[in-house]
Design goal:
Length: 343
């Protein structure tokens, strides 16, 4: 069975073709990062309009890359939430329209289920069960993944996501968007021990996170610097960047290791853009090896938002018998806020 899938929940337009037997056939992606850069963050209305312009050309590209035509498609999947309402509506309405015109079923997909199953697209593939640390600009969650459709939330952020903490701290330091890579680069030149930043909820006893206090600490430090200090100011900023990165990485790693201990599982998968962070990778690799476990970092192209994970999640659900393909209704809605417990 051939599934055409769409992702448009935030600032990436992704389209993919997945075969339920053979896996990923082709995919195409457009990132809006450059467009949002001049505003310092994602502008929802611009995101929606850009998705509209990209979605059909990317569809043609994806079909051509697989040597297929729309008539070859057996079902159309799309991200139904969570995400930006207007952006989600673009993918949802295009997917439902194509499904309707072909007389095929449409499959709404939960964005986070896409992320959780995306490591299975990588090589090597982690076997179930595993713990997933999902760390992106929009999410910070620890999940236990026992199989397709079998997910348990272990902990999550109570306020900002880890990527958001990187982005907001970077903005306070006058670095570009997205802030994570920029802050991480500046941190290379800094000393993380000069400023002692808080490690929010490190000893909270649970697996939840909180990052909103960190940006206040960064702001307070920034205000204490002399902006006309020349080289001293640059050094102070680099030290602050290093301290910020260390604080975020420490908390993410400590809670992930706690989740491994609590579940007794040996495999950890890190998904989401923050998974690109070099310090986080090194820290988790060392600590998981010490515990006789394994950590998987799927390629970044699969970790950040993409259409492949959405079409793939739909295929996995079909294979697991979790999708009713008989429905012919193409009425739809999107769910900007949608918990994974509710799929
Ligand atoms: P979303 O679509 O929810 O914003 P993505 O999975 O696309 O999330 O990841 C983007 C996030 O990852 C941004 O917040 C960005 O700052 C962060 N990020 C990317 N690279 C790094 C890095 N090397 N270190 C820290 N954060 C990073
Ligand atoms: Mg993104």
């Amino acid at each position: 069975m051939i599934i055409l899938g769409y992702e448009s929940s935030c600032d990436e337009t992704g389209v993919a073709l997945v075969c339920t037997e053979r896996g990923l056939l082709s995919h195409a992606l457009h990132s809006q990062v450059k467009m949002h850069q001049e505003y310092g963050g994602v502008v929802p209305e611009l995101a929606s309009r850009d998705h509209i312009q990209r979605v059909l050309p990317l569809t043609a590209e994806t079909l051509a890359a697989a040597g297929m035509q729309l008539a070859d498609v057996d079902a159309v999947a799309y991200t139904a939430g969570p995400g930006l309402a207007g952006a989600l509506l673009v993918g949802a309405s295009v997917a439902q329209s194509i499904a309707w015109s072909l007389g095929r079923p449409a499959i709404p997909v939960h964005h986070l289920e896409g992320h959780l199953l995306s490591p299975l697209l990588a090589n090597p593939t982690p076997a179930f069960p595993f713990v997933a640390l999902l760390v992106s600009g929009g999410h910070t969650q620890l999940m236990r993944v026992d199989g397709v459709g079998r997910y348990a939330l272990l902990g999550e952020t109570l306020d900002d996501a880890a990527g958001e903490a990187f982005d907001k701290s970077a903005k306070l330091m006058g670095l570009g968007y997205p802030g994570g890579p920029a802050l991480s680069k500046l941190a290379e030149q800094g000393d993380p021990t000069v400023y002692d930043l808080p490690r929010p909820m490190l000893h909270s006893g649970d697996l939840d996170f909180s990052f909103s206090g960190l940006k206040t600490a960064v702001l307070t430090r920034m205000k204490s610097f002399d902006v006309n200090g020349g080289a001293a100011f640059e050094t102070a900023k680099a030290n602050l960047a290093a301290a910020t990165e260390a604080a975020i990485v420490d908390v993410l790693a400590a809670k992930s290791l706690k989740a491994m201990k609590q579940t007794g599982l040996k495999r950890l998968v890190v998904a989401g853009g923050v998974g690109a962070n070099r310090h986080l990778r090194q820290h988790l690799e060392t600590e998981m090896a010490r515990r006789g476990g394994e950590v998987f970092f799927p390629p970044l192209s699969l970790c950040t938002d993409n259409g492949a994970m959405i079409a793939f999640a739909a295929a996995q659900r079909v294979n697991a018998g979790l999708v009713d393909l008989s429905t012919s209704s193409h009425a739809f809605t999107v769910r900007p806020r949608w918990g994974l417990h509710d799929i």
